[in-house]
Amino acid sequence: MAASDSELVRRILSGSDTAAAELVHRYQRPVFSILLRMVRDRTAAEDLAQETFIKALNALDSFQQERKFSSWLFKIAHNRAIDHLRRASPESVPLETQDEALDPLAVLAAPEAERPDRAAGRLDLRRAFQQSLARLRPSYREVVVLRFQEGLSYEEIAEVCDLPMGTVKTHLHRARKALAKELTELGFGPGSEGGETA
Amino acid sequence: MRSNPSKRNKRPAKGVGPSRGEEMRDTRIHRALESWLRHEAAGRDRRAEAALASIFALLPRAEPSAEFLAKVLAGAGFEAPARRLRAAGPRLRALVLVCGALVATALALLPTLLSALAALVRTGKPLELAAAALAAGIQRIGESLALWETLAGVSGAVGSALASPLILAILALCAAVSLLAFKLLESLLVSDRSTYYAEL
Q1: What is the value of ipTM here, to two decimals?
Q2: Within a 10 A sphere around the Cβ of A159, how many other Cβ atoms?
Q3: Contact residues, chain A, for B76 at CB < 8 Å
């Protein structure tokens, strides 16, 4: 049976290399996946994931063991991503709305992604979904990924993103609606005939 | 009216389109998407959330590079453990298991083999074989020595003959006559040489 996170943390603190490898192996995919969704650059995401784990392993003695390890780790990843995006290209922050301009993740508002409706002819279903997701506001995209891809609770998302619970719920609700609208406009959804391919 | 992209891509060209597995996954995603959008439209939040989560579960997950773990551990000052068997591919795992089984079998048979070897040494068979090989080698050397003895006799006779002054004088005379004859022959050849014949 696999050891729990807190058991692995205890073993790492007593100097176990194997436990460190086990913990990194357990979380490398979700951390990388979240960061990739946020920064949308594979190399940068891998560097940030590496920094996240190194920081976490080095600061493990400050981790309060009554907390959930995954939330603590994802919070480090979130902070690294925001720092990276702030450094990356502040001039590329869209200025359409004050809200977006203040959003440190706004640089990820799919600057290079073409409008899905223009490219619809070349998109398959998965790409359409991924592109619609990429076109969400970065702060929405992050909560969507944490909630629906990683299965975090509202409380955990609030902790990771440092947001009030109400804001998390609002972001999730709006993100879902925006995503649904994009995909419906592309012709997907109830009544479409893409499912006939089986 | 906007056309449906899924429908348009329904029959991809052979060899370039998605595999059967991908098509099936696309179908599942499509159904989950329909279900989600239906729940969204109806305002059923909980069901919509569950359906959206099922879409994410069907999407392929990005993974970091193979060296990621080792880099992290090195960066944090931990030693990377030996490559884990579970991280290896199924073929490599099977190969490692077969090798492990062979090693285990060999180890199990080792005491039996060692005791058999010890018994062989005790009976003196190796010593007997070594002595026979040595005797055969010595016999061959003896045979070659007989030939050497004959050659040495011939060499001794020639040497003693060369040591006598008369024989040496005869040899010197022969050498002088040979040299003179060679010189005469050379002069004859040089005097008779003509380009006339050469031009024919």
Answers
A1: 0.74
A2: 20
A3: 20, 53-54, 57-58
Inter-chain residue contact B72 with A54, CB threshold 8 Å: yes
Distance CA B141, CA B144 (A): 5
Chain B CB contacts of A49 under 8 Å are 64, 68
CB burial readout B104-118, b (16+ within 10 A) else e: eeeeeeeeeeeeeee
Count Cβ atoms within 10 A of the Cβ of residue A44 and give its class: 0-12 exposed, 13-18 middle, 19 or more buried: middle
Give residue A189's Cα distance to chain centre: 25
Work out whether the CA dihedral A165, A167, A173, A176 comes out positive or negative.
Answer: negative
For B54, nearest residue in chain A (alpha carbons): A148
Asked if the Cβ–Cβ distance from A190 to B59 is below 8 Å, we say no
Give the least confident one: A98-102, A135-139, B60-64.
A98-102
**Looking up tokens 């002819």, which residue turns up?**
A121
What is the pLDDT, as a whole number, of residue B83?
Answer: 56
Record the pTM.
0.57
Q: Half-sphere exposure (CA, 13 Å, Cβ side) for A124?
A: 16
User: What is the DSSP code string of A76-138?
Assistant: HHHHHHHHHHHHH-GGGS--S-HHHHH-TTGGGS-SSPPPHHHHGGG--HHHHHHHHHHTS-H
Block residue for tokens 């029959």: B11
- On chain A, the residues whose CB falls within 8 A of the CB of B37 are 180, 183-184, 188-190
Cβ-contact B56, A149 below 8 angstroms: yes
Span A6-51, pLDDT tens digits: 999 999 999 899 999 999 999 999 999 999 988 888 999 999 999 9
- pLDDT attached to residue A119: 41
Contacts 24+ apart (CB under 8 A), B113-118: none
> Percent of chain A scored above 70 by pLDDT?
77
